[in-house]
Amino acid sequence: MYVAVKGGERAILNSYRMLDDYRRGDRAVPELSLDQIREQMPLAVSRVMAEGSLYDPQLAALALKQAAGDVIEAVFLLRAYRTTLSRYGYTQPIDTGRMRLQRRISSTFKDVPGGQILGPTYDYTQRLLDFSLEAERQADALPAGDEPLDSAMPRVTDLLAHDDLIDAEAIPDGDPEPFDLTRQPLDFPASRAARLQNLARADEGFLLSMGYSTQRGYGNTHPFAAEIRYGFLEVEMHIEELGFAVTVGEIEITECQMVSQFSGNGEEGPKFTRGYGLTFGYGERKTMSMALVDRALKAKDLGERADSPANDHEFVLYHSDNVEASGFVQHLKLPHYVDFQANLELLRRMRAERAAPGSASDPASDPALAPDTTRQLDEAVAP
């Protein structure tokens, strides 16, 4: 046993060294710096920050480098580091209406107040490989815009709410402290605050699949992208010693408001309902998917049919976390020798009983079980 343990330890240490070598690649190629990853792979950095639930572009870049580009592994690393940090306090609620916008579009109003701002997006590219990127080149600086952005850009949902055309999002009685998913276990029925926290750090691919399913008929909504905003926003924290809030930094965020039709019920008339998505960094696909799923999870509360996968709170919330899902799947690589041997012995005993002379499952009395077939199966499970 001792020899086996020491041998396993040496193998693991060698595995570390081989991983370092695999991650570094050809030594003739310059090593990636964290600045390069942070500045030239911003979408990957944004996803790691969002699903790792920690806003720090530098640490997200480090996690991506350490994980050799494996986003889920990088999320795992960042979230594990997050658990070691002390919590000094809570920031003030942010007002996305004050966002320093880089992009703002709406698919519901052509002439939305403040105008459509396309910003940086792949939406209008042709999805053709740009081979000029193979050559290292100095990018030209983007000229400053000739016209400043309109400072008055009301949210589309606020315009609908002004005419009482969309469901109100009232503050609950007593204004209770919001649910904290990082300190409280998820329980059902889950409040919307808990659901949104879960979705905010959920796996983008899972949310995309769930949101897509609602558009293909596995749901009861017909969504419109009321507004998508991307930009930068100051974060404030109230300092008790000073008696007022101070700005502690600026974060990059993306927000999406989806609206869907609602036919009404016995208590309220027809109106639009909303789904909401917000995430760290630049992540439109994530926030759109999040908003679709948020609306789907409201179905039961609105008295709608809730028989689709995206309507099932437990199914969606328990399976959306990529760190937990990855760990559960990858644990299958660990030794399961005893379990497998028990199953193998049980299978042999069942086959022996099945093949016993005179049994109802005697191959001799069952033409569907040819002798050659049973012999091949026996050889397959033989020690």
From TrEMBL:
GO terms for biological process: organic phosphonate metabolic process. It is an enzyme of class 2 (transferase). The keyword Transferase applies. Residues 355-372 have a biased composition (Low complexity). InterPro entries: PhnI. Signal peptide: none annotated. Its EC number is 2.7.8.37. Residues 353-383 are annotated as: Disordered. Keywords: Transferase. It comes from the Bacteria. GO terms for molecular function: alpha-D-ribose 1-methylphosphonate 5-triphosphate synthase activity. This is Alpha-D-ribose 1-methylphosphonate 5-triphosphate synthase subunit PhnI. The gene is phnI.
